[in-house]
Structure formats: C-alpha cells, structure tokens
C-alpha cells in the first residue's frame, strides 16, 4: 500500500516537472536573462557594435541624475500624468451619466470607445493633418471666432506638449470609460431602489453607492495610468520624433541606444524607469492595503 502511494507520488512529480520544465526555461531565456543583461549593460559604456564593454560602475546613473537634459524628459512625462488624471475624472463623469437611461446613450458610449479601435499610427497621422497650419483645427477656431488662439500647435515648444497630452487624453479615455461603466453596471440595482425609497438624491447615489463599489476598478485604472505615463512613446515619436522638447523617457531611451549608440546610458535609463514604476506600484499597493485595513 505504502509502495503504491510512493509510486503515485513520484509519477505526479514527474508530470508536474514535465509541464513546468519548458515554461520555466522560456521564462528564464526571454524574461529573467534579458533583465539581468540589461542591468549589466547599465554599468558599462558600450556602442552596441564593439565586442568589448567598458565597466563604468554607477557613472551612467550619476550622469542621468545630474544632467538637466535627462531631468527635463521626466518633466515631459508630467504633462501626460496631468492628462491621465483629467482622463480619469472625465471618464468617471460620463460613465456615471451614461450608466443611467440617457438620450443618445448608445451613440455617446460608442463615441468614447471608438478611439481605442484606431491604431496609434493612424491617430498620429490624423492629428498631424488636423493641427497643420491653416488646417481643420485653425478653421474650427476661426468658425468659433477664436482666431487669437491660432498658432503652431505642433511647432511651438510652449504648446506642443499640451497638444500631445490632449491627444493622449482623447485616445485613452475610452479605456477608463469602459472600466468604470462595467463596474457601475455590476452594482446590484436593489441598492438604487432602496436609496430612492429613502429619498436619496442623484449625488447621494454617487457618493454612497457608486464610488464605494468601484474602488477596486479605480485603483486598477490608476496603476494602468501610472505605467502608461512613464512609458509614453507612440505620440511624441511618430508626430514629433522626440524633437521640440517632446522626448519622453522611452523616446529618449530609444534615441540613446539606436541614434547615439550609447547602449549603456540607454540601459541605465531603462533600469531607472523600471524602478520608478515599481516604486509607484508599491506606494499604491501600500495606500490601498492601509485603506482596506481601516475599513475592516
């Protein structure tokens, strides 16, 4: 009896080993090894071509943290952070409004989701034409009697980051809208009926029913927003090629590696970017866990 149990245990371990072997090997080859290699490169000076890599220690990190040129690109990402926070507020507002019976409900829902279905390249080319001098946007301003605001929306360094952040908001608002709408519609309708019987106003329903029930989705969206903000790439690269003060951290990383042949610096910037994402995620998780413990 004991021998049979022992034999069965060995067979189960073999089956588990067979199922896990290839996924673990693939994870090590394409997941862990590239990360280890990236960290190693961040401590070297390498042009990406020569066989030798010069070990420079933390010199790349010190240069990034002390050079104002590199600190500026982190500030550029702040435009997208503000845009993302505004995106959450606007998406929340319309998700609440459109979760109830409203005139043109289907049309407005589709309007928010449509930008998600268009590729980043197509959106970039569309807005390049839209903001061209004497283009559709200038004509719209003229029609509205706002000629004094006509200018170089993609050529003026003072305006271009606002323009790109606005395009980012328009493109990504559908994601937040879908998350919030799905969470609101999953709330039990009985809560609303009981609230109406108690004489609750619309604001009371939002404050005491909707917001407490979609906290998890709000947290998820904020984490996605944080990751999206520090990894902005498509819009500034396709529309501006990172020029005119529009280079974000990811665009600068790519240019360092493939234009300037500074793979060591690019690796250091990538490692710093990863650490920023990890730190923000840990802070968010800490805040969420602390709040959940208070509610218990």
TrEMBL record:
GO terms for cellular component: plasma membrane. GO terms for biological process: transmembrane transport. The keyword Lipid metabolism does not apply. InterPro entries: ABC_transporter_permease, MetI-like, MetI-like_sf. Gene3D superfamilies: MetI-like (1.10.3720.10). Keywords: Cell membrane, Membrane, Transmembrane, Transmembrane helix, Transport. Belongs to the binding-protein-dependent transport system permease family. It is a multi-pass membrane protein. The chain crosses the membrane at residues 15-36, 78-100, 112-131, 177-194, 206-233, 263-288. This is Sugar ABC transporter permease. Residues 73-284 form the ABC transmembrane type-1 domain. It holds the Pfam family BPD_transp_1. It is found in: Cell membrane.
């Amino acid at each position: 009896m004991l021998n049979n149990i022992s034999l069965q245990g060995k067979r189960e371990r073999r089956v588990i080993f067979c199922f896990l072997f290839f996924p673990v090997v693939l994870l090590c080859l394409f997941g862990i090894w590239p990360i280890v290699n990236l960290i190693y490169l961040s401590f070297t000076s390498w042009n990406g071509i020569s066989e030798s890599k010069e070990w420079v220690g933390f010199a790349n990190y010190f240069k990034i943290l002390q050079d104002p040129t590199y600190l500026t690109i982190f500030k550029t990402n702040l435009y997208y952070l503000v845009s993302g926070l505004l995106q959450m507020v606007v998406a929340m507002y319309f998700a609440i409004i459109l979760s109830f019976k409203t005139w043109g409900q289907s049309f407005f829902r589709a309007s928010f989701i449509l930008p998600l279905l268009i590729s980043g390249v197509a959106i970039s080319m569309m807005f390049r034409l839209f903001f061209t001098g004497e283009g559709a946007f200038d004509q719209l301003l003229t029609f509205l009697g706002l000629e004094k605001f006509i200018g170089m929306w993609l050529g003026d360094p003072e305006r271009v980051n606002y323009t790109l952040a606005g395009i980012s908001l328009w493109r990504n608002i559908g994601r937040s809208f879908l998350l919030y709408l799905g969470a609101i519609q999953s709330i039990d309708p009985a809560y609303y009926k009981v609230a109406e019987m108690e004489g609750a106003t619309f604001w009371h329903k939002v404050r005491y029913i909707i917001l407490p029930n979609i906290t998890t989705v709000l947290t998820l969206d904020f984490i996605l927003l944080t990751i999206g903000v520090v990894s902005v790439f498509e819009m500034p690269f396709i529309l501006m090629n990172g020029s005119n003060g529009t280079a974000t951290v990811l665009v600068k990383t790519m240019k360092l590696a493939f234009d300037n042949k500074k793979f060591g610096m690019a690796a250091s910037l990538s490692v710093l970017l990863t650490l920023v994402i990890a730190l923000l995620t840990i802070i968010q998780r800490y805040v969420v866990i602390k709040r959940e413990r208070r509610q218990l």
